[in-house]
């Protein structure tokens, strides 16, 4: 049976890292048994990855060709979303979704223009629009978190 792992969780991130590195490599990097490493990906298990091991796996993931540091990205996103959720108690989820859709569309348009022209102004604009889209998407997830906390 496949375990259900929620998005934006350490368990889900651990599984994604292990898919790239392999469980034996993960265990070797962290100095634990393969079974112990697998526990870190099980939502119902009380065992969780240590910060130093997450850091080690982030480095190994990038060395293996990954384009980001999975645990660092997850922690940053979770902290940002938690901060936003604390201030989003009254935010309307449909409004947040509409803003996210608008910002994402503008970001994609700007990225296409930057890819086609390559000039500094269009590249700068693409970065700005992408940052705004990321912020809007984080705010949308924060709205969901806030709604779940009230339910």
Please explain how this structure is put together.
The chain is an all-alpha fold. Helix content is 75%, strand content 0%. The protein has 7 helices and no strands. It has helices at 10-21, 23-30, 34-39, 51-63, 70-87, 93-117, 120-150. The chain is flat and about 50 Å long.
What Rg is obtained from the alpha carbons, in whole angstroms? 19 Å
Number of helices: 7
**Low-pLDDT segments:** none
Major beta sheet summary? none
Q: What pattern of helices and strands is seen along the backbone? A: HHHHHHH
Beta-strand percent range? under 5%
Mean pLDDT: 91
Morphology call: flat
**Structural class estimated from helices and strands:** mainly alpha
Number of strands: 0
How far the N terminus sits from the C terminus, by CA atoms, comes to 29 Å
Helix content: over 70%
Features:
151 residues, mainly alpha, 7 helices, 0% strand, flat
In summary, what is this structure?
The protein is mainly α. The chain is built from 7 helices and no strands.
């Amino acid at each position: 049976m496949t375990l259900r792992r929620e998005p934006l969780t350490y368990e889900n991130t651990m599984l994604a890292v292990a898919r790239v590195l392999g469980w034996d490599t993960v265990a070797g990097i962290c100095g634990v048994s393969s079974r112990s490493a697998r526990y870190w990906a099980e939502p119902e298990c009380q065992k969780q990855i240590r910060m130093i091991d997450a850091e080690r796996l982030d480095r190994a993931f990038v060395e293996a060709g990954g384009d980001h540091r999975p645990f660092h990205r997850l922690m940053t996103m979770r902290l940002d979303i938690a901060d936003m959720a604390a201030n989003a108690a009254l935010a309307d989820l449909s409004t947040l979704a509409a803003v996210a859709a608008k910002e994402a569309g503008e970001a994609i348009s700007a990225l296409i223009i930057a890819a086609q022209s390559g000039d500094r102004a269009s590249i700068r604009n693409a970065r700005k629009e992408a940052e705004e889209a990321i912020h809007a998407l984080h705010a949308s997830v924060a709205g969901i978190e806030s709604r779940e906390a009230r339910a």
